Fold this sequence. Notes:
The complex is a heterodimer of chains A (301) and B (215).
Chain A: E1 2-13, E2 16-23, E3 36-40, E4 46-50, E5 60-66, H1 75-80, E6 87-90, E7 104-110, H2 114-126, E8 130-137, H3 146-149, E9 156-160, H4 161-164, H5 169-175, E10 180-185, H6 188-197, E11 203-206, E12 221-225, E13 230-234, H7 240-246, E14 265-269, E15 272-273, E16 284-285, E17 291-292, E18 296-299
Parallel strand pairs in A: 7-8, 7-10, 8-9, 10-11, 12-18
Antiparallel strand pairs in A: 1-2, 1-6, 2-5, 3-4, 12-13, 14-16, 14-18, 15-17
Helix pairs in contact in A: 5-6
Chain B: H1 5-8, H2 19-26, H3 31-34, H4 43-50, E1 54-60, E2 66-72, E3 79-82, E4 85-90, H5 98-105, E5 108-114, E6 121-131, H6 134-138, E7 149-161, H7 164-169, H8 186-193, H9 200-211
Antiparallel strand pairs in B: 1-2, 1-5, 3-4, 4-7, 5-6, 6-7
Amino acid sequence: MQRTILDRVEPVADDVLSLVLRGADGPLAPWEPGAHVDVALPNWLVRQYSLCGDPDDREHYRIAVRHDRLSRGGSEYVHLFLRPGREVPVSVPRNHFPLVEAPEHLFVAGGIGITPILPMFRAALRSGSDARLVHIGRTRESMPFSESLRRFGDRVRIVVTDVDGRPDLTELAAEAGPRTQVHCCGPASMLDAAEAAFPADRLHVERFRPVEREFAPNTAFTAHCARSGRAVQVPAGESLLDALEQAGHAIPTGCREGVCGSCELRVLAGEPEHRDDIGAPGGRIYPCVSRAVSEQLVLDL
Amino acid sequence: MTSTDSDTKISRRPRRVSFEQLRARIGEPEERIKAKVSDRIDAHARRFLAHSPFLALATSDASGLPDCSPRGDYPGFAKVLDERTLAIPDRPGNKLADSFANLAGNDGVGLLFLIPGMREVLRINGRGYPTDEPDVLARMRTEAKEPMFALVVEVSEVFLHCGRALVRSRLWDPASRALAAEMPTAGEVAAEQMGLQIDPAVLDQQLEAAYRQLY
Lengths: 301, 215
């Protein structure tokens, strides 16, 4: 974790606060557009927020937090109790949503989903891409950063669904050329529509919440820790992460529901059963949700 | 353990003092103390609740026999639905459902909230009932699991209680933790109370395993 001080809190839309965090021990770890950080709140909760500031500013991170009506205690805490001056531990940035280079980009952001998209859109324009952004929100007042998007002129299209209705993403897909890479972040319904509209090989999405899915019943398996030479039994009723923690392995954790990637481990042998929403790269596993198909799993631990 | 019954047996019941006599001897509370009771969760109470990981829940059955039971989770686990309404998750326990059984016959609820390190405690009294309202349970999801039920408390009294009890008890003094070492383990107590011919260490291991399933 990096020590930061909360420097500034300001509303940027209805129910959305922008938070500027200043590195307390010199420059902060660098990041690429699309990256997010874990923020450790005083109420023991750890939440993931996309960085939406300027990657060239090494003194500060900027995040934006929407007050979720069904908050479990993260966004509610930020909105009601977190005040400037408070020390806030923040992880090193991680990026599961990198900008894929291309001559043309289409960015589709829903509501607070603008946060990772904003630095990606700026970076794409700087790289010379013919980049366009569609920002979708229920009302104009609910959409963060719409003022700062104004200077991009007709490269940015604001869609207010209360006025304009929901945009037809298949129309956007028909307008997009074959060389267009599509990056999309927003609520699950929007991402589902995007997955139906755009070809999978040119669509890149980031989810805030795990997709509701059914999995085969849990089975027990053994995790072999290659470096320590220990065998850890993982019973059906326990996650791989919990079993490893109980066995004394300190593993960084965040969401514990397969969306943030904090707990990533290397798999050396055995067949994992991936249950995360990140799309674990080859040879990696997120032990908070994922298990094993094989009876044995060998981990670089 | 040895029984100490013989040491503590008293020759007669301790005498009873009427409330009138008691009141006459302790005197009347100051007006400003009486005025501290609010009928709603104000900003200070809300901040207290957001930082409290532990509460004691008092209920009583239809005959008036009371019960008090602990509840705990991350700070703010008791959710403020509005300034008159709280919701407390019902996490897996021993399935006795004593509190809910009491509430079925008597909906009175007394709550005492603690914040580690803080001497003052927050007390809330009201009326309670179980709910399975999806929007309420969704706010209590931890490690991808929602509780089956939550206890809704319709608040009638909210007040901060002074810290003398916690000061005298040295509850947050790290040195006080040494007291726990003077206690037998839960497995040792259970083995003796239930007359089990079983190694207490086995019971303690089973308990430790059960403590790993918190949600």
